TrEMBL record:
Its EC number is 4.2.1.136, 5.1.99.6. SUPFAM superfamilies: Ribokinase-like (SSF53613), YjeF N-terminal domain-like (SSF64153). (6S)-NADPHX binds at residues 66-70, 134-140, 163, 261, 314, 364, 432. This is Bifunctional NAD(P)H-hydrate repair enzyme. Its cofactor is K(+); Mg(2+). AMP binds at residues 403-407, 431. K(+) binds at residues 67, 130, 166. Residues 226-507 form the YjeF C-terminal domain. Residues 219-239 are annotated as: Disordered. The lineage of its organism: Bacteria, Bacillati, Actinomycetota, Actinomycetes, Mycobacteriales. Homotetramer. It holds the Pfam family Carb_kinase. It comes from Dietzia natronolimnaea. The gene is nnrE.
Length: 510
């Protein structure tokens, strides 16, 4: 399990290290340790992209704080390995003086101007080290950094970000319009929240040991499971199991308008575990044609016992759909509310009050808009936590999975993030697959058997099922994109669905 911490916790953990260095009369000892890690990873990137380190060109973008100091010391170390190093001082009047002296005495060049001042190799360096801002950064890149970053990115130079890509907020993970897109981010001691909230912008994240003790988890810690943890926890039938003990999930999905949603959702539930799947809705014939093992029922009232429910994909938003949601919640089983069910809840919020068992809401950004009446998109984790806490304060045992390239799950106490490493899952119908998988996991019982779900107490199991399904869903999307039509060819939700068994198998072996 990866854990990423807020700035305040990191500053607190760093303080004793810095105080010890100052007391020893070497105030930059920690910074030099950090910088040598940056230099190490920059050299590795140079080697993999250009075949060597000696003689390669490096540009340092140097801001006014300690992040710029790290970049300057890293530049001095790379100069020692034979690189041509040029530091661009973005605020020449405010620069880490000792680190600048170290670069100069190692033979690094220093410039202070705008984009036009850079010429020759420095206009297209072999690597750029982003030391504009780190933990104290706020808002987008400002000039002259923004123009300089844009020119270097256009030239195709790879970026190594020191601590965080500049223009990405350390706590919220907000990626501002003007920002650095890093190939590699080198951070120190432990992950910052942005590394898990804005992972697509951070590139590969390398954590350098600077002697810092990992902060304890708190309410603002972001968690991300390793796929192998999900693999170990994925249900496997034991010698005593039968179809009932592995969990029965009932699915209310599909309509005359959206028959495919029923097929995708029910088929995903079948693929996720070897328990039993019931189906209620107008799509029974299509569902049976795709998966004859599904047991179909004419109405919610006539559906046999189920350990969990999924309601909503393509299920309609009229009064009959609302009545079905009420009838399902009255059964007091863990329930996934997805797609049309979220629209129903948004227009009839009172319905949720009857929830006696855990509910999992799975909105995308637009559905979350409807549920909340508008939310602060610049701070996804806080907006999500506020909404979940509000529901829980009203006695509704809710967990919410907010979809996106980086999917967030929050149960009011813990935030998880899942980034599948590609955006291939952004395709129509893929949400129906996800809700079917979560429903099957919820039916299987305490999710993540024995897995550390972050010590979250109540709600943790629902959250773990949601996180585990999101991990496999992302793996399936990536695998489908590799296999269907070859790398780079788009996929549909049907391709993703077909890749689910192989994705489960892959993470079990991970
Ligand atoms: N504290 C420590 O123990 C260590 C800190 N280290 C480095 O120190 C960094 C933090 O340094 P600082 O606290 O000096 O802060 P930064 O270097 O992150 O920021 C410096 C200043 O930049 C300005 N700024 C904020 N947003 C900006 C923007 N969008 N555009 C331009 N300027 C902006 C602010 O005035 C801010 O105080 C860490 O990210 C890390 O790189 C490392 O040396 C490892 C050890």
């Amino acid at each position: 399990m990866l854990r990423a911490h807020p700035v305040e916790a990191i500053r607190t953990a760093e303080r004793p290290l810095i105080e010890a260095a100052e007391a020893a009369g070497d105030p930059d000892a920690v910074m030099r340790r950090a910088a040598s890690g940056v230099a190490h990873h920059a050299a590795a990137l140079l080697r993999s992209r250009t075949g060597g380190v000696y003689g390669r060109s490096v540009v340092l973008l140097v801001g006014s704080g300690d992040n710029g100091g790290d970049a300057l010391y890293a530049g001095a170390a790379l100069r020692g390995r034979g690189c041509r190093v040029e530091a661009v001082l973005l605020h020449p009047d405010r620069v880490h003086a000792r680190a600048l002296r170290a670069l100069r005495s190692a033979g690094g060049r220093v410039t202070t101007g705008g984009v036009d001042e850079v010429s020759g190799a420095a206009a297209t360096p072999d690597v750029v080290i982003d030391g504009v801002v780190g933990l104290a950064g706020s808002g987008p890149l400002r000039e002259p950094a923004a123009a300089r970053v844009a020119a270097l990115a256009r030239a195709g130079s790879p970026f190594v970000a020191v601590d965080l890509p500049s223009g990405v907020d350390a706590d919220t993970g907000t990626v501002h319009d003007a920002h650095v897109r890093a190939d590699v981010t080198v951070t120190f001691g432990t992950l910052r929240r942005a590394h898990l909230l804005a992972s697509p912008t951070c590139g590969r994240v390398e954590v350098v040991d600077i002697g810092l003790a990992e902060p304890a988890s708190g309410p603002l810690t972001v968690h991300r499971p390793d796929p192998s943890e999900v693999g170990r926890a994925w249900p496997v039938p034991g010698p005593e199991d039968d179809k009932y003990t592995q969990g029965v999930v009932a699915i209310r999905a599909g309509s005359g308008r959206f028959p495919g949603a029923a097929v995708l959702c029910a088929s995903a539930a079948v693929a996720a575990t070897s328990g039993m799947v019931r189906y209620v809705g107008s799509g029974a014939a299509d569902v049976l044609a795709a998966r004859p093992e599904v047991v179909c029922h004419p109405s919610v009232a006539e559906t046999g016992t189920a350990q969990s429910w999924v309601v909503g994909p393509g299920a309609g938003t009229g009064s009959a759909a609302v009545a079905d949601i009420e009838a399902i919640l009255a059964r007091a089983r863990p329930t996934v509310l997805d797609a049309d069910a979220l629209t129903c809840i948004a227009s009839h919020p009172v319905v949720l009050r009857s929830a006696r068992a855990p509910v999992l809401l799975t909105p995308h950004a637009g559905e979350f808009d409807r549920l909340t009446g508008g939310w602060d998109r610049s701070d996804r984790p806080s907006a999500l936590r506020r909404y979940v806490s509000d529901l829980r304060n009203r006695g509704i045992p809710a967990t919410v999975l907010l979809k996106g390239r980086v999917t967030l799950v929050d149960d009011g106490q813990t935030t998880w993030s899942v980034d599948p490493g590609s955006s291939w899952a952004a395709t129509a119908g893929s949400g129906d697959v996800l809700s079917g998988m979560v429903g099957a996991l919820l039916a299987n019982g305490p999710g993540g058997s024995g897995v550390d779900s972050g010590g979250t107490g109540s709600g943790g199991e629902v959250a773990w099922s949601a996180v585990a399904a999101a991990v496999v869903h992302g793996e399936a999307a990536r695998a489908a994109a590799r296999r269907t039509g070859g790398p780079g060819a788009p996929i549909g939700a049907g391709d993703l669905l077909r890749a689910v068994p192989a994705a489960i198998s892959a993470i079990r072996g991970a």
